[in-house]
Design brief:
heterodimer; A: alpha+beta; 5-stranded mixed beta sheet; B: elongated
């Protein structure tokens, strides 16, 4: 086609010379020089032009095909200039899909001082519409040399309309993401909170930022509501019920603080975690008050008799001590210049179950001594009691372990004094004693049993776990925790009353009471911890302030309230623990 | 011949130009529409988020508990009030068997229901009847 075109062209040109030959020849000589074959040159030029145009059109056609084939995602998402100051965060949901934290859009008011004509007028009008603005501060900001100043973050739509109506030049709005916590106080210690720029500064919110959200925001991608919500393990209903009971208990026993934890020992999921006094996540300033810390992860405590469960577990798992063995608890245990007394002293030889149900300090201490210091240390380390426990929550506390761990330390740690651990950590250990012997790190996110087993390490034998469950149940049937025997849920539990250290000495009046429970004891689904800090004796408890009079009844009330919510089926007329749990241990042998 | 081709080509050029203009115009319009819909979707998303936040604020257990305490005579459920489905009693056999054309007549004719009063007045004694 190209050659045909060229031929036609040359023939048209070639026909010309015959008519006005001299004039043509003159112009030809002037324009091209005397001896040039004009036809050949034209042909070459034409060819060049055709090639260039063909290339041009080829590129266009190619691009068109590329546009048609490539999906739209190739286009850069341009964000609106009036958005995207504060990070968009994914929603936080509880395990049933209830919203714990979400973003809403809120306008914020800003000013460009160089564009403001009359500062006095602007200040007057703005403070009239927004009465909570400080006049002096607004004046200072508007008279500053900066090109951009915030006047007020997060105003209401009505205020926005009112300010808009003022028609002031140099005043504008930006829509920002504002984090709201519709359930306020309910799960504040778990969720944490954000700062004014929507960056997580505590709890799960901070964990989100650490796990890539902050990078996403820096890349300018976290502006839109496109992120997958994060599902937590917490159950809002359980969380509320637990908190409600703990608030009541704290008032009733005039305690300094109260805390509670519910965990699934099979997966390590934390279904509820409350520490009162707590704070409203919508008002993060409250969180600065040191009395409002989360006692379960950020505080370390001497857990008292609750720790005896770990000691007895260690003893039974060693194979050197069995349930039928007995230990001398006739007199107080003399160790150097220290004397270890029993609170419920029986002054006779006690069997292992009796040591557990009477909560005998002397008995547990003798048990630990029989196994030795190194074994004790090794077992507690295996159960994760000596190292800092890290969960999703950024706040965590290191356990206070004695530097020179001698026999005296083993004696006191056996019954829960002399070693301070985070309560969550102790519950992880108790969970391992209950669930058949697997140590599973606790989590605040949803986790399936399969995922949990991948993380689990076997720490004790399954038969030891069964024996421990028997002891826990026995303690509720006829031990120190009878007030928590909620009909139908086969509760097992261990009480603890730890004397607090005041000015370097163990105080007789200031105690930390706790109650660790497992339900149902024959096939554990949940473990529960109730802790009350400095409860007072009241007429109803006959002036006593030990665990059996406060933490245990609170635990019972909590169990009665939450067990139906957790989907546990009440079973009545179950045989006693020695028939139901212990029998299966004997069979499996 | 050549002239005809030229005319055709020029005509084709005009047609193509007009067509391209039309497509360009339409695509601009569509793009604007897409942008508008995007903003609208975004606004709707924001509205949904705000409403959901409001909903869960109203729905939060502490508030419901307070309202229930104030306005309802309900009490927390007790363990003994739960039962299993397989322990439900059998459904009673219906008085009227299926397929009876006049169920009310059948009921009146039933001998064991003869003395049952059908109104809220007390039944007259047998001697007064």
């Amino acid at each position: 086609m190209r050659s045909a075109l060229a031929v036609t062209h040359s023939t048209t040109l070639g026909a010309a010379p015959g008519t006005n030959s001299w004039r043509r020849r003159l112009s030809h000589a002037l324009l091209y020089g005397p001896n040039v074959d004009r036809a050949a040159k034209a042909k070459a030029r034409l060819g060049l032009a055709i090639v260039v145009f063909a290339l041009g059109y080829g590129v266009i056609a190619g691009r068109l095909v590329m546009f048609a084939v490539a999906p739209e995602s190739q286009l850069v998402r341009r964000s609106n200039a009036a958005d995207a100051v504060a990070t968009a965060r994914p929603d936080l949901l509880d395990r049933n899909g209830e919203i714990l934290a979400t973003d809403v859009r809120a306008p914020s008011l800003f000013a460009e001082p160089h564009r403001i004509i009359d500062v006095d007028e602007a200040v007057e009008l703005l403070t009239a519409v927004l009465p909570d603005l400080e006049t002096a501060e607004v004046r200072e900001r508007l008279s500053s040399k900066r090109r951009f100043v915030w006047l007020k973050r997060e105003i209401t739509p009505e205020q926005r309309v009112a300010v808009h109506r003022l028609g002031l030049p140099g005043i504008g709005f930006m829509t920002e993401n504002k984090r709201v916590y519709p359930n306020g106080v309910a799960a504040a210690h778990i969720i944490g909170h954000v700062n004014i720029d929507n960056q997580g500064i505590a709890g799960i919110e901070k964990w989100l930022d650490r796990n890539g959200l902050a990078d996403l925001h820096l890349a300018g991608l976290a502006t839109d509501r496109l992120q997958q919500p994060v599902e937590l393990a917490v159950d809002l209903r359980i969380q509320h019920a637990l908190r409600d009971e703990l608030v009541k208990a704290r008032d009733k026993y005039k305690a300094k603080a109260a805390a509670g934890l519910i965990m699934d020992p099979r997966t390590g999921e934390i279904t509820a975690m409350v520490s009162v006094p707590d704070y409203d996540a919508n008002n993060p300033r409250e969180a600065l008050d040191p009395t409002r810390i989360n006692r379960l992860t950020t505080g370390v405590f001497e857990m008292g008799s609750t720790f005896k469960a770990l000691t007895v577990g260690m003893a039974l798992d060693s194979g050197k001590i069995s349930l039928t063995d007995s230990f001398d608890a006739r007199t107080a245990l003399q160790y150097g210049k220290f004397t270890i007394h029993d609170f419920h002293a029986q002054n006779r030889v006690l069997t292992v179950p009796e040591i557990f149900t009477y909560s005998s300090n002397v008995g547990t201490a003798r048990m630990a001594l029989k196994l030795g210091v190194e074994h004790h240390k090794w077992f507690l380390r295996k159960l994760g009691q000596l190292d800092r426990l890290r969960t999703e929550l950024p706040e965590s506390a290191e356990p206070l372990v004695p530097r020179n761990w001698g026999e005296l330390n083993t004696v006191t740690i056996a019954f829960g004094h002399g070693l301070s651990v985070a309560p969550l950590q102790a519950m992880m250990g108790v969970g391992a004693l209950m669930n058949g012997g697997y140590l599973i790190p606790p989590t605040f996110r949803k986790r399936s049993e399969k995922e949990a087993m991948a993380l689990a390490t076997r720490v004790i034998k399954p038969s030891t776990s069964e024996k421990m469950r028997y002891l826990m149940r026995l303690n509720v049937e006829k031990g120190t925790a009878t007030k928590a025997d909620v009909d139908g849920f086969y509760v097992g539990g261990k009480t603890g009353t730890a004397e607090k250290v005041v000015a370097g000495r163990y105080s007789k009046t200031k105690v930390l009471t706790s109650f660790t429970a497992v339900l149902p004891a024959d096939q554990p689904r949940y473990v529960l911890l109730i802790m009350i800090d400095e409860p007072q004796g009241i007429p109803e408890t006959k002036g006593f302030a030990t665990s059996g009079w406060n933490a245990v009844p609170v635990g019972g009330a909590v169990i009665a309230r939450i067990a139906p919510l957790l989907g546990l089926e009440p079973r009545f007329e179950l045989p006693a623990s020695d028939k139901l749990i212990l029998a299966s241990v004997r069979e499996s042998r | 011949m050549i002239r005809l081709i030229n005319i055709c080509v020029i005509a084709a050029l005009f047609v193509a130009a007009a067509y391209v203009y039309k497509i360009k115009f339409e695509s601009t319009q569509r793009a604007e529409q897409v942008a508008k819909l995007r903003t609208e979707i975004r606004r709707e998303h924001d509205a949904i988020a705000a409403l959901r936040a409001e909903w869960s604020r109203l729905d939060n257990p502490a508030r419901i508990q307070e309202l229930a305490r104030r306005h309802l005579a309900l009490k927390p459920i007790e363990q003994r009030q739960f039962d299993r489905l397989d322990q439900l009693p059998e459904r009673p056999t219906p008085l009227v068997p299926a397929g009876v054309s006049d169920p009310i007549g059948f009921l009146i004719a039933l001998p064991e229901l003869a003395d049952t009063p059908t109104a809220s007045i007390t039944a007259p004694k047998k001697s007064e009847r």
